[in-house]
Structures are given as structure tokens and as C-alpha cells.
């Protein structure tokens, strides 16, 4: 145990709460070797497709071991521009409207650092991805949580935004489809949100990392709606759709003045994303769509299974329209989210995350990630059923 005190740690960092997910993983780690099925980690169970790995190996063999342009390799930015036009109907110039980042995580960090003054308010829908609120606190801005509800399939509504809005709100953080709820918005709902953003002059940070994992209906990007491209930073990456979490590669697209502000922070911090990851990402965008469709089909099948089983067991679960998360309620079986998650782990060795890890609006729910093999998922569902039946006795 080190004797160094924490007097050198910055106050706002010391004040950051521990991630609820991390706490839970520590519990899971203690059960190593006990046949735990984890539905906890939000990560594809697939390995990055071989041709993508091969592209990285080839790049190394060719001696590509240097820095790239701060904005990222021009060929990759061109491929991103083509992809975003074809899939989202939004045109960005590769020269100055796209920046390649170290995952969506870095793009988010750059955006908060580039756009938030101390005291600025950032609205975000909640339950939400665990990093948003801490990232906002780290730049001395304030988070304004906007609740989403199971009764709306966790879609964000313009009414909820209006009710939560306070003077000083400058940014809306959107994540559709959403981690942890799988909720998303259809075009009409998104149009109402866009109108609200224009009315209140909000900048939108749109994290669309799960857009390729949309199972029902089509995904619409808010950036594609009239009057929105000029006030939106579109954030995307390779981690989820291409099973590339460990490569740490993503990007942001937006108006050149805003990308330039993000670039200023990036050039003095990260400088550029790894060239090896950029080469792999280029191969993924150019030749990886069959892999994406195959993986999406498998997630779709698993989603249908887990949602059906949750509802049969008595854990009311809406059908997530996208992502690889189900977010059932534990209220119907008379348990809090923590009682369910801890009891299930201890008695039946299945790990799910208590919904409160994603903010107070996650109370009464747990997150189960179905990026786990179908057979494993069947066993996990059987174990959950046993646990619930046991608890009823
Ligand atoms: N945004 C959301 C909503 C996520 O769920 C995650 C990872 O779980 C990230 C961003 C981070 O993505 P990346 O691996 O590209 O940094």
C-alpha cells in the first residue's frame, strides 16, 4: 500500500464517483473460475474480421510505423465521408470536416473540452452511457439529465427536453440507439427534438456508435435533418459494428470551425490515432460490410431470444430497437435492481449490471448485454429463470 496522500489529486477528479460498472466487475472478478456467464461488458463477442486484421499486419510489414496527419489519413477520411453520405445522407468534406480519433471516447472528450466553458450546461438523456456525466464534470460544465421512460421504449421526447431545459443549456448530448436501453427515436420524434435544438440554439453531439446495430426500422441521423448539420457533431466509430473495441479508432464529423476547435485540442494531446488502427479501419469501411450484416443478424436473433425470455420470466422488457443491450425491469418480481443483479450473480453466476450504474433514471432496471453466443445466452436465460423461481418461493 503506497503512503502517498491524495493531496496532489485535482479536486474535481477526486470528486468523480466510481463507476457503478467497475464496482460490479470487481465482484465478478472475485468469482473467477466459477463458470460465470457475463452479460455485463458492452463488447462484441466476435473477433475483428480476419481481412481487417490482415490489413494491419500488412501495414506493419510495409513499415507503416509513423505519425499520420493530425486529422487522420486522407484515404480514411475520404472513406468515412463516402460512408456517412451513403448511410446517413450527410455530406462532409474530408479535408476539414472530419477528424479521426482514438475511439468515440476521444472524440467525446475533445468535444467537451473544445465546446464547454466552466458552468455551461449539457443536456443528456438518462439512463445513459456511463462516461457522459463524468466527462462533462471534468471540463467544469454541468450535466442536465433528461429522463427517458420504459413506457416510451426509452425514446427521448421533445416534451421531456423542454421540461428539463434551464437557462445556460448550450449542448445536447444524444446517443441513439442508446446504451444502456437500446431505445432510439423515429424520424418524427427526431424532427421535434431538432426543432427544439434550433429554438434554444443548442449544439448537438450525436453519438451514433450503435447505428449499424439497428434491428427495427431505419436509423436516422439528426445531422441529416433540415437546419441541423451546421449545429451537429456526428460521432461514430468502429468498436461495435466491426468488433474493433481494442483498436481504439473512431471519428467526428461537423462544421469546419467546430472540427478545427476539436483538432486544436487533439493536436496537443493525442496528435493522431494509431496508423495501424487507421489502416485496419480503412479496410473495414472498404470491405467489411458483409461482416457487419452477419454480426447484426446474430445480435438480432439473440435480442429476440433474450427479450422473449425476460418477459416470460416476469422481467418486463421492451424490445430494444438497436444496440446489443436489453434493459428489463425488476419491479414485477419485487426486487430492486441491485438485489436482482447481486442475487443472480451469487446464486446462478450470471452477471448483469444494475441500471443505476447508468444514472438514477435506471432505477428498477438491469442491463444485459446480448453480445454473447446464442447457446450461452440460452443457458444464462435458464439460470435467470431458476433464480426468479427460487426467489418466489
Ligand atoms: N459511446 C457509447 C454510447 C458507448 O457505449 C461506448 C462504449 O461502450 C463508447 C461511446 C466508446 O466507444 P469507443 O470504443 O469508440 O471509444
From TrEMBL:
Cofactor(s) annotated in UniProt: pyridoxal 5'-phosphate
Pfam families documented for this protein: Aminotran_1_2 (PF00155)
Molecular function GO labels: pyridoxal phosphate binding; transaminase activity
One record GO biological process: amino acid metabolic process
Keywords attached to this entry: Aminotransferase, Pyridoxal phosphate, Transferase
Domain Aminotransferase class I/classII large as annotated: residue spans: 35-379
EC numbers, comma separated: 2.6.1.-
SUPFAM superfamilies membership: PLP-dependent transferases
CDD domains per UniProt: AAT_like
Family of this protein: Belongs to the class-I pyridoxal-phosphate-dependent aminotransferase family.
Protein known as: Aminotransferase
Organism for this UniProt entry: Rariglobus hedericola
Amino acid at each position: 500500500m503506497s503512503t502517498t496522500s491524495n493531496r496532489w489529486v485535482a479536486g474535481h477528479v477526486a470528486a468523480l464517483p466510481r463507476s457503478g460498472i467497475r464496482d460490479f466487475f470487481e465482484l465478478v472478478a472475485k468469482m473467477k473460475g466459477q463458470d460465470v456467464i457475463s452479460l455485463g461488458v458492452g463488447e462484441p463477442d466476435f473477433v475483428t474480421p480476419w481481412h481487417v486484421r490482415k490489413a494491419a499486419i500488412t501495414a506493419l510489414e510495409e513499415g507503416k510505423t509513423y505519425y499520420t496527419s493530425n486529422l487522420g489519413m486522407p484515404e480514411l477520411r475520404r472513406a468515412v465521408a463516402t460512408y456517412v453520405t451513403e448511410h446517413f445522407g450527410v455530406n462532409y468534406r474530408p479535408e476539414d470536416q472530419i477528424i479521426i480519433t482514438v475511439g468515440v471516447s476521444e472524440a467525446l472528450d475533445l468535444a467537451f473540452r473544445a465546446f464547454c466553458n466552466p458552468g455551461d450546461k449539457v443536456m443528456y438523456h438518462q439512463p445513459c452511457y456511463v462516461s457522459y456525466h463524468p466527462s462533462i464534470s471534468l471540463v467544469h460544465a454541468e450535466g442536465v439529465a433528461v429522463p427517458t421512460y420504459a413506457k416510451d421504449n426509452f425514446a427521448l421526447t421533445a416534451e421531456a427536453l423542454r421540461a428539463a431545459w434551464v437557462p445556460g443549456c448550450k449542448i445536447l448530448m444524444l446517443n441513439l440507439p442508446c446504451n444502456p436501453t437500446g431505445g432510439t427515436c423515429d424520424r418524427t420524434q427526431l424532427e421535434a427534438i431538432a426543432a427544439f435544438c434550433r429554438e434554444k440554439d443548442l449544439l448537438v453531439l450525436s453519438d451514433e456508435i450503435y447505428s449499424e446495430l439497428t434491428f427495427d426500422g431505419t436509423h436516422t441521423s439528426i445531422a441529416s435533418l433540415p437546419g441541423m448539420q451546421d449545429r451537429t457533431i456526428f460521432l461514430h466509430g468502429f468498436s461495435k459494428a466491426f468488433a474493433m473495441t481494442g483498436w481504439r479508432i473512431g471519428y467526428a464529423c461537423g462544421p469546419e470551425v467546430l472540427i478545427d476547435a476539436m483538432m486544436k485540442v487533439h493536436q496537443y494531446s493525442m496528435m493522431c490515432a494509431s496508423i495501424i488502427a487507421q489502416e485496419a479501419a480503412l479496410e473495414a469501411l472498404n470491405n467489411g460490410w458483409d461482416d457487419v450484416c452477419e454480426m447484426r443478424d446474430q445480435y438480432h436473433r439473440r435480442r429476440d431470444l433474450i427479450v422473449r425470455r425476460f418477459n416470460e420470466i416476469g422481467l418486463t422488457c421492451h424490445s430494444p430497437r438497436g444496440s446489443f443491450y436489453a434493459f428489463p425491469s425488476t419491479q414485477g418480481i419485487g426486487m430492486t435492481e441491485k438485489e436482482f443483479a447481486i442475487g443472480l450473480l451469487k446464486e446462478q453466476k450470471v452477471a448483469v449490471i444494475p441500471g443505476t450504474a447508468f444514472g438514477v433514471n435506471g432505477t428498477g432496471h438491469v442491463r444485459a448485454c446480448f453480445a454473447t453466443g446464442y447457446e450461452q445466452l440460452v443457458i444464462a436465460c435458464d439460470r435467470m429463470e431458476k433464480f426468479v423461481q427460487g426467489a418466489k418461493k
